[in-house]
Amino acid sequence: MTRARGEGGLSRFGSSRFWKATWTDASGVRRSASTGKTAKGAAAEWLRERLADARAGIPAAPDGSTLSTLRRLVLDDYAANGRKTAAHARRAFERLIASMGDVPARGLTSADVTAHVARRRAAEAAPATINRELAALRRGLRLAVRAGILSGAPDIQCLAEHNARKGFLEREALASIVAHLPEWYADVVAVLADTGWRVSEVLSRQWRHVSGGTLRLDPGETKNGEGREFPLTAKIRSAIDRCRDRTRELEQIEGAIVPWVFHVDGEQLSRYALGNAWAKARAKAGHPGRLLHDLRRSRVREMEMAGVPRSVAMSLVGHKTQAIYSRYAIVDATQQREAVAKLEAAANRSVMTK
Fold it and tell me: In angstroms, what CA-CA distances link 190 with 14, 193, 233?
């Protein structure tokens, strides 16, 4: 049985922070949804907007068009375009829904987003983390507009990020951390340190990617979509040889083919497992703040100090633009002192020859 248009009410049950609205839409269908508002006045304003739409004969947004709907749109878009960071988007929406509730996408305002940002800042979330959430939400809203679910989307502005890349890991400190790692983890770290590649790129290598004295990434596997090769250094070759020996031994025992270069009992080594092992090892070595990504920054700096042409260095580590590469090729105090010493030496030689 349908009810008259315009009827509505607010309620809140159990431990929920958000007011729930019920109303009859333009077609006479009784609807119920979370307002996403914790203050009753704000929830009442939200409901008044739905009632005004009903009286004006404006159809309600399709059933289920909540933040969960936007999440589904984004994840489907990632799958359709072969993007490899769907897990990041999924986690971003989990945090959005935990903060805002699974609110209807229609009626979401800039003020709602600002309130979310305020809650996340109060929870001491990093600006970069909040921006990943805002980017995921903005993408979901745009896809909803494109699909005809929404007629428009609020303006969403990201926060300023002061996250200049500064972390480096000297080879001595790296050796002390590696000393506390199991051998199969240490081999991965050796390859990360010498290639400067991303963790996901190294962990996903299979034996078919090791040939001709190089380690290869095929087109489409990298962040910028381009393929890449890295000539095997002595350390990389030693690490891969040890991995090959362990793989052959396991294959003889299990009678199965293991495609992964880096694995544990035949299963691809996960980033989570590597991260846990690294965290424990760095704490034991007395370097608790060092990140695996510091290896990438450190390798870029080593290339700069060794005088490797930037175009060559960029092709090796996978930076497509000078702007991105420059964020990693940070000049530190040691390099500055060495540069000044070279200038002084050159000036002294010039004086002595006169």
Answer: 53, 5, 10
**Non-local CB neighbours of 30 within 8 Å, separated by 6+ positions:** 2, 3, 22, 23, 24
Give the predicted TM-score (pTM) of the model: 0.56
Among candidates 271, 79, 101, which has minimal Cα distance to 189?
271
Confidence bin at 1 (pLDDT 50/70/90): very low
Helix (H) or strand (E) holding 21: strand 20-24
Domain ranges (residues) in the chain: 8-146, 171-335
Question: Cα(18)–Cα(34) distance, rounded to whole angstroms?
Answer: 7
d(CA 152, CA 173): 52
53 contacts: CB under 8 Å, gap ≥ 6 = 25, 26, 60
CA distance 167 to 154: 37
- What would the pLDDT profile of 223-277 be if each residue is shown by its tens digit? 767 788 999 999 999 999 999 999 999 999 988 899 999 999 899 999 889 999 9
Instruction: Report the CATH number of the 8-146 domain.
Output: 1.10.150
CATH tag, 171-335: 1.10.443.10
Angstrom CA distances, 334 to 19, 75, 170, 345, stand at 58, 45, 12, 17
